[in-house]
Amino acid sequence: MEEEFRRVAGIILGAPLTRRTRRELLYCLFGGLAGVAGFVVTLMLLTSGFTVSASVIGTVVGLLLITVGLRVSRRLGSLHRRLLRRFLGDPVEAPPRFEPGTGALGRLDRRLRDRAAWRGVWYSLIKLPVAGVQLYAITLTIFGLVDITYPVDWLLFRNHSAGTRLSPMVAIVPFPFGGAFQISSWLGTYLAAFLGALCVISAAWLARGINAADHALVRSLLAPTSMAERVSELERTRTLAVEDSAAALRRVERDLHDGAQMRLAALAMNLGMAREKLDDDDDATVRELIDAAHRNAVDALSDLRDLARGIHPPVLDNGLASALDSLAASSAIPASVTASIGQRPAPAIETIAYFCAAELIANATKHSFANQITINISTERAGVLRLDVSDDGIGGADVTRGSGLSGLVQRVSTVDGRVDVSSPSGGPTVVTVVLPMKA
User: Cα–Cα–Cα angle for 161, 181, 152, nearest 5°?
Assistant: First the structure.
């Protein structure tokens, strides 16, 4: 019994010295500040928006403020998820990416019906008391650490000769441990140090408790917990998959009809004419027709190879790393590949990753004016494949401009992947494609 008591007491008293407590307090600091700022910004934007939109004249301005507030709530939700992952090591899945409608009214309608954004608003409002407790834990820690140093401070700065009159030291112990009290002797500093240690221990456990509550809030409000939302996302990705497959079949049909089929038809005509000319004595004409037929045959074979390569590159049979090396070798801009792949991804995922890299290299070649392209493919963690393609060009790539990047986003989303683009003006451009290992 005594040993168990010592063990429990050691856990309670030793909590402030652990690495976990340091991470919990850092999360309290940054999460609390972000919570207060998010509450103020969200409340101001939405209150102003609803107030202004109540009048006929200010409806447009009010709706604009509300949509800005909803966009900000999504960004704040992303910030809180990153803080939780950074300091407490607990990743929370992000809700589905917002998909704007077509036209101004379509975008406004989608934004106002964005469930993830409204849940972010609720989180920002509920976060205020949670942030208050988190910042109170930081306050307890700071004042507690200061009070613990009072015995040493007295010896360093108050150790004067007898008869010297000095103003008393003031120790601040936050509620509920007391308040401010004066210390007139060295022995009194030990009371301040004891109360300071009590504050630090209490702050450590308070931080753990309030962060657990905040973690529950993040999971319930900032993660895709709505079944209807998940079903909607699955329907969207399924639709994109069907559309992508249909578009691929249309491209195959068009390429066969306009390319290989026409060349093979010309080959048949030329060979037929050559056969008819065999009865003549003009060998030069026969030779010319046969040469034309040969050229058409070679061109047709080349077209068929390109078509087959577009459906499934044969180089992928040797693995994704080898395929990317081949792709980099054929790049007009010097490209280097770094591969760190453990378990081999599914064939569909390898194909998507290959075509993403090919499209990104083509984009860089056309638009970036870069001198170097870097490709990095790795299994970032279990079940996730990460492709990074960067260049040192002029930057300015934007998914929303209808470029090839938007097509990549659609293709990757069919397997619940994502594309992140960082391309400030002046460069560099870094495009990250995250895919599951299995489709």
Answer: 45
Cis before 314? omega within 30? no
Q: Which residues pair with 246 in a beta bridge?
A: none
User: Which of residues 237 and 388 earns the better pLDDT score?
Assistant: 388
205, 225, 306: which is closest to 263 by C-alpha?
Answer: 306
Q: What does the chain come to in residues?
A: 439
Q: Fill in the amino acid letter for 293.
A: A
DSSP bridge pairs for 433: 387, 419
The fraction of the chain above a pLDDT of 70, given in percent, is 71
**Is residue 184 pLDDT above 80, yes or no?**
no
Under 8 Å between Cβ of 236 and 229: no
Residue 405 tokens read as 């990047």
Separation of alpha carbons 62 and 48, rounded Å? 7
Give residue-wise pLDDT tens across range 41-63: 998 988 888 888 777 677 778 88
365, 331 in Cβ contact below 8 A?
yes
CB 356 within 8 A of CB 404: no
Structural tokens at position 78: 């992303």
User: Could you check whether the bond before residue 151 is cis, i.e. omega within 30 degrees of 0?
Assistant: no
* pTM to 2 decimal places: 0.51
Beta-sheet strand order (sheet of 373-381): 335-340, 373-381, 384-391, 429-436, 418-422
Which comes out higher in pLDDT, residue 153 or 142? 142
- Contacts by 54-63 with C-beta closer than 8 Å and gap 24+? 63/108, 63/112
- DSSP assignment of 193-262 equals HHHHHHHHHHHHHHHHHHHHHHHHHHHHHSS---HHHHHHHHHHHHHHHHHHHHHHHHHHHHHIIIIIHH
Better-scored residue on pLDDT, 357 or 261? 357
